[in-house]
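User: Structure please.
Assistant: Input sequence and predicted structure:
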Amino acid sequence: MEQIINEKKKTLSRQSSSFRLRSPSLNALRLHRVFDLFDKNKDGFITVEELSQALSRLGLDADFSDLKTTIDSYIKPDKTGLRFDDFAALHKTLDESFFGGEGSCCDGSPESDLEEAFNVFDEDGDGFISAFELQKVLKKLGLPEAGEIEQVEKMIVSVDINHDGRVDFFEFKNMMQVALVPSS
């Protein structure tokens, strides 16, 4: 297992920081959303099978027996899977193991956090999120909105201020501020 972790560290250290969750104010909300996405049957637990399927959908195939060994150490006795608190503890351990814990990739500012999120969607790195890129990420996450490109294009149009058919960072930032700031 230690060899696998060391190999993953090398691989992950070369990857974009866009997979790291840094802003403490948004981290719990994001983690809850990820937990809900992975909990396919909505029973409040993520089983090893559900986690394996979710990782596979994201293109992160893991050896099932290694995954089971790791996950089982976080599952409380008499439980069938990870509760949210268990999942959060697992996330924290993985973050510390792979990324050195809080603050190792960036300054943790809301701006850099948004840049990281934007880069997840901007797969080709051209500075824009196209409908195709958005659809790919939504599919990886197993979201039904990814089913039809017309639906995804409507999502783009709804935040595309300059009407160029794609979302730039300014539009993404504006959309995220509207989505995350509760209206009074």
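The radius of gyration is 17 Å.
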